[in-house]
């Protein structure tokens, strides 16, 4: 879907967190990340060569990826100038911003003039089918969370890497705009029309070799009232053989919903398995991925050890420890 | 949303079943149904006065409602002529067809020329919010099914009528195109973008008097892999105080999915309550609605009696018996 390699546009990022898309590409697909372009005042740095648009094109860059969020919701004059230059120099532009590239007349005109593509990865590019629920060859693993934003994408990317390191056939399947920008393809599930949600996931994870794993990025949570329907469509479209439970232990309530407490991991296990076994009776939970960024090293180790004793499942923080133990559960 | 009263357009319906939208309006909102317009060969009859477009307008009809399905997926020349006449005579046109009125250049031109509206109820007309999950005043009841198309809309409409007959404040809340055409408003949930599904249901069922019931039309089934995400969004957006389980006892597999058996009513009760209690801990199942059209009178009575003993819940067929027993559970 996206042509590689990329020039990562960091704009005038107010802090490193704003550039999490660029960071994701840098971490997970470094071979795509040719260089970075930063404007005055940029507070993010991917430790990549700084490049102008012209330098990047000269070195082979095919797509400028907007690697930074613009919270204000407006594509600024300063950005537009650089983006027009990129189109003129021969690059496509890819973006996961809420405000779409295609809604900027200057960019639309420049893209047409120079024969380049504007790729808004939030907008579905495909007419997805309605799900038919039929079993298909190959194996699938899905990350499900006690809440939104607890590390499901990170977990899936880390697991995909760990499987590849073991020479197990594996594909990361992106279901959100960050994942799509990182890997260059996927389904922007939260923007798909209701009737086609599960079908879009069947489309994303088609029949494959019997020993191939699709590692599917999770979205939302069965326990998050705003987005639970998206999560269930993902479970029923993905027909997972394996689930990984994802959790952030310092979260005090569901993201954005002060009225809602998080479920326990036991509740998540029970509910997610019940729903998954409707489409795949042999589905099992193979481990727990904990984002322990809010704990110090010792607290994290104790938390994971206690949890492992309690749940009798491998419990890891893939950021601190990698995902090889989870990969072992899939490849054994 | 739709102006009443209606002229019901039955077209050249090949059989009575094809006119189920018209039948629904005739059954549930007879005060909206001024007359019917039938073309040569029409095999459906609502036992309403046959009217031409001009006669209907003279008697006050405001909207021509397409009350019949066109399986071929094309709006035929014969239809277009009548629909153009209706616009010229001063009526709006409302439709739940897959092929949209707005995609017919002749109708678009005629509507513009005569200052009339083309209302495709399958297309969301509103920018829905993301659900915030906040509790709100008033009571809500939702119909959930073991499968799609087991009588959830009929059950909700019958319950709404039965509550009104008891002088209980009640509103039927439509979530599909047939329900929207019958009652003139609602949310076409299966066409809403994933992120906004639950929010559209919060919008549809806002805070109300403490003794008011929203009776929410169900969609899909938690156990139907193609549409389960829609169902869960409905449960989490609707925050139901009460659930009614809907079932069709002669169904041999999930609709359209020969690989999938139906869940038991016990499984549905357990799963739907678990999911509903995430947003409304006091939610309870108040009864079962069975579509016994496939059973004779005696079989139906025996089935309902056995089921009632098994589940210890009121079990009724609202088509045969009305929904007063269910209404009694809500108003007691």
TrEMBL record, chains A, B:
Residues 130-326 form the D-glutamate N-acetyltransferase-like C-terminal domain. It holds the Pfam family DUF1611_N. Residues 39-124 form the D-glutamate N-acetyltransferase-like N-terminal domain. This is DUF1611 domain-containing protein. It comes from Kushneria phosphatilytica. The lineage of its organism: Bacteria, Pseudomonadati, Pseudomonadota, Gammaproteobacteria, Oceanospirillales.
């Amino acid at each position: 879907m996206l042509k590689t390699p990329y020039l990562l546009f960091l704009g005038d990022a107010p802090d490193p967190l704003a550039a999490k898309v660029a960071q994701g590409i840098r971490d997970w697909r470094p071979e795509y990340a040719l260089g970075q372009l930063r404007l005055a005042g940029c507070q993010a740095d991917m430790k990549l060569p700084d490049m102008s648009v012209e330098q990047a094109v000269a070195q082979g860059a095919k797509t400028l990826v907007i690697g930074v969020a613009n919270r204000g919701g407006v594509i600024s004059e300063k950005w537009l100038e650089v983006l027009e230059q990129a189109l003129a120099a021969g690059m496509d532009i890819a973006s996961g911003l809420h405000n779409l590239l295609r809604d900027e007349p200057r960019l639309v005109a420049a893209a047409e003039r120079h024969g380049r593509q504007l790729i808004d990865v939030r907008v579905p590019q495909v007419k997805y089918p309605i799900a038919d629920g039929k079993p298909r060859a190959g194996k699938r693993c899905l990350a499900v969370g006690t809440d939104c934003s607890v590390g499901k994408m990170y977990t899936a990317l880390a697991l995909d890497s760990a499987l590849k390191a073991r020479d197990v056939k594996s594909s990361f399947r992106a279901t959100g705009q960050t994942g799509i920008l990182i890997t260059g393809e996927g389904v922007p599930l939260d923007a798909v029309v209701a009737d086609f949600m599960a079908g879009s996931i069947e489309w994303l994870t088609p029949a494959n070799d019997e020993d191939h794993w699709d590692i599917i990025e999770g979205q939302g949570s069965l326990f998050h009232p705003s987005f639970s329907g998206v999560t269930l469509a993902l479970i029923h479209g993905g027909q997972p053989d394996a689930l990984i439970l994802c959790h952030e232990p310092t979260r005090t309530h569901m993201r954005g919903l002060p009225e809602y407490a998080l479920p326990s991991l036991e509740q998540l296990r029970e509910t997610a398995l019940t729903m998954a076994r409707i489409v795949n009776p042999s589905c099992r939970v193979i481990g727990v991925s904990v984002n322990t960024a809010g704990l110090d090293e010792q607290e994290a180790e104790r938390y994971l050890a206690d949890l492992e004793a309690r749940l009798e499942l491998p419990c890891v923080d893939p950021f601190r420890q990698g995902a090889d133990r989870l990969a072992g559960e899939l490849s054994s």
